[in-house]
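Hi R.,

Here's the chain you asked about this morning:
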Amino acid sequence: MLEKVTLSDVLFLDIETVSGEKEYSALSERMQKLWKKKCRIVLRKPVGELLGENEIAETYSNRAGIFAEFGRIVCISVGFWSNRTKEFRTKSFYGDDERLLLEDFCGLLEKHFNDPKEHFLCGHNIKEFDIPYTCRRMVINGLSLPAMLRIEGKKPWELAHFLDTMTVWKFGDFKNYTSLDLLAAVFDIDTPKDDIDGSMVGRVYYQEKDLERIARYCEKDVVTTARVMQRMKGIPILRDDQVANSYL
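And here is the predicted structure, written out as C-alpha cells:
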C-alpha cells in the first residue's frame, strides 16, 4: 500500500483537545450528571462505590478533553509537500472559537485535499482519535462534513485514504498501542515532546492561555509523523531546513 502513495497527495494532521469547560463546576447540571457516569467508567469504578466530588472534578480536568462529548478542539495542525517549492509546509488552525477553526480546516480540505480517491489524510492514531473526534465536533457545531470525512456507512476498504502510522506499525497486531514518541525514538527521529506533551495541553490552554505554544507542539507532531512515514517508505527524512510555515 505505502509504495503506491505519493507523499505530495498526503495531508498530515494532528489535533489538540481540551475539556469543554475550564472546570467541572462550570458544566450545566445535566452535563455534570452525565460526566459523573462517564467518570465511573473512566476510572473503572464498580457500581455502588462512591466517587468523591474532588475526584470527579479532577478527572474532568485531566481526562474530559479526550471525549468529543465533553471536550473540544483548540488546534488542528496540518503539513503537506509543496510541489512548487519542494518544501514541507505546515499550517495551524487554532483559537477559542472551535466552529471557526473547524470551518477553516474544512475550507483547506475542500480546496486542496477533496478527493478520497486521489488524496490521503495521515496521522498517528487518527483512525481511533483524530478523525472520529473531528467528525463529532463538526456535527456538534452544525457543520457539514467535507468529502474526505464522509465516512459513515463506509466499508473498511473504502477508507483507504486514511493513512495511520500506528496501524501501519501494528502489521496486523491489534493488542498494542505504540506512541508517536516511541516510534520516533526507534527510528532515531527527534522527539516532538521536547516542550509539552498531550497531558499538558489543557493546563497550557486554560491557565497559561498560550495557544501559540500548543500550535507549535501540534506542528511538531505533524512533522514527526511525516518523518515516520518517510522511514516506513524507506526514503530519506525531512531536514529542518525543508520545513516551512504555509499561509494558504
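One quick note: The radius of gyration is 19 Å.

Cheers,
M.
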